[in-house]
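STRUCTURE:
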């Protein structure tokens, strides 16, 4: 028990130190974190004093740095709390501020655990017969459950598959869009993703049959979250589809927060607002489909090109889909990698999007008829492959589906569109050079600039090449020693 308790304390101390380090590297992160973490969430009085002072400095519009924090706390308090050493350790603990909200979530979680455990122990002290084990009936159940889950005695629990009853996959669109899972829907910008997604939504809302002739189910509500179309555009689109618009739910405003004495609206952020989304589905029990247009727009500060950050954002959404038994359609753009002939690698951002989605679809232009759009499967983990379908966008902007399937697959469509080899350009030379420079370890931007001049490659071309390669750029060090570092994605934590 004691070993487990010390482990928990150690983890919390690390999280608090890492969070302080992130905020000192990038004070703008304080604007988000102070809505997630309160001073009472800190176990360390030193970290709490640094955090509280940093928030005060930021609120007053003053710079947030070690000198400013020390001056605000005063010499005596800095000495008593060992502020200087803690700040140095915090800055040294993190090379960049990428995981700020992750550490903030840990600090808040540990703070909540401490509060619940304290409340539990207070209640337990009121029980007369201490020789008997704690009875959940005599305590608040949530407090008791949290205490059990967080105690070392709980350990890592397992169960055998024999205790799990197999279930059949439930489908919104049989074979194509599952219930209780994520479905990825990708294509070039402007190809008709939103048009066809709205068409799917209208079929769900009205109980109409699907484009392949499969009968529709009972009418269900839709939650349509769009970062690209305004509410008037969406309303007009669903009106043209002949859909009951009372079944289509959109956000009336952003997430309301109270900051600095005023109410503010902010955009939905799945990093922090998954609870708000769950509450929404509790209020709309008839909902059967959630559409995010586009998926990358609801990730907050998370990097869509990083596998761990995409999983951190969308794994909770996948669990929500399962709990609520709804289908989730994630719209996404193709990336610019036109050289590949494998559709699974054309998705925007990290491969985690494709990995998390149980089913993935792509929209492709017919190589022989440019107005004809092909709806082809990229992957299906839940059932047999499904044939492609085709449609055209007709006036007034509605998809007209062909009744018969199309004998083509997504990889074949990409192979037919692959451009002819081109001669090596200065930009491609820069990409090869930059890949070689960053192959072993991160390199500072200043060093790269000097080396690029030696081989006669302009810095602007290097910056464009870094964008193509999705080079990770972050600040490292502190004070005059601070420098911008460049690293390939797989070496960013080197």
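SEQUENCE:
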């Amino acid at each position: 028990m004691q070993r487990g308790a010390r482990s928990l304390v150690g983890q919390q101390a690390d999280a608090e130190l890492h969070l302080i380090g992130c905020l000192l590297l990038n004070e703008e992160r304080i604007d988000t974190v102070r809505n997630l973490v309160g001073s009472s969430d800190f176990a360390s009085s030193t970290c709490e004093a640094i955090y509280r002072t940093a928030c005060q400095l930021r609120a007053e519009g003053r710079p947030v740095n070690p000198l400013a924090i020390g001056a605000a706390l005063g010499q005596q308090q800095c000495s008593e709390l060992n502020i200087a050493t803690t700040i140095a350790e915090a800055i040294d603990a993190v090379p960049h501020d990428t995981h700020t909200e992750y550490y903030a979530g840990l600090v808040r979680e540990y703070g909540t655990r401490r509060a619940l455990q304290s409340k539990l122990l207070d209640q337990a002290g009121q029980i007369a017969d201490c020789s008997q084990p704690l009875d959940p009936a005599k305590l608040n159940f949530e407090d008791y459950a949290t205490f059990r889950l967080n105690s070392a005695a709980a350990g890592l629990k397992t169960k055998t598959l024999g205790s799990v009853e197999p279930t059949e996959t439930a489908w919104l669109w049989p074979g194509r869009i599952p219930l209780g899972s994520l479905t990825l829907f990708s294509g070039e910008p402007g190809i008709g993703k939103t048009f066809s997604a709205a068409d799917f939504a209208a079929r769900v809302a009205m109980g109409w049959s699907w484009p392949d002739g499969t009968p529709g189910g009972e009418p269900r509500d839709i939650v349509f979250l769009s970062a690209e179309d305004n509410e008037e555009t969406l309303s007009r689109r669903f009106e043209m589809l002949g859909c009951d618009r009372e079944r289509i739910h959109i956000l009336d405003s952003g997430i309301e927060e109270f900051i600095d004495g005023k109410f503010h609206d902010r955009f939905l952020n799945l990093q922090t607002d998954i609870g708000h989304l769950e509450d929404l589905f509790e209020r709309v029990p008839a909902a059967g489909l959630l559409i995010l247009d586009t998926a990358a727009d609801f990730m907050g500060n998370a990097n869509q090109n990083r596998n761990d950050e995409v999983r951190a954002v969308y794994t909770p959404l996948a669990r929500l889909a399962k709990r609520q038994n709804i289908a989730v359609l994630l719209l996404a753009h193709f990336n610019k990698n036109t050289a590949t002939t494998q559709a699974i690698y054309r998705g925007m951002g990290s491969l985690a999007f494709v990995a998390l989605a149980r089913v993935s679809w792509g929209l492709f232009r017919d190589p022989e008829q440019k107005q004809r759009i092909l709806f082809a499967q990229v992957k299906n983990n839940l059932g047999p492959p499904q044939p492609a379908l085709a449609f055209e966008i007709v006036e007034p902007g509605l998809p007209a589906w062909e009744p018969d399937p199309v004998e083509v697959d997504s990889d074949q469509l990409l192979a037919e569109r692959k451009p002819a080899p081109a001669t090596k350009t200065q930009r491609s030379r820069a990409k090869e050079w930059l890949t070689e420079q960053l192959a072993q370890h991160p390199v500072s931007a200043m060093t790269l600039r000097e080396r690029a001049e030696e081989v006669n490659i302009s810095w602007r071309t290097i910056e464009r090449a870094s964008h193509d390669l999705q080079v990770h750029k972050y600040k490292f060090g502190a004070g005059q020693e601070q420098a911008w570092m460049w690293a390939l994605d797989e070496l960013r934590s080197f």
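REMARK: The longest helix spans residues 100-124.
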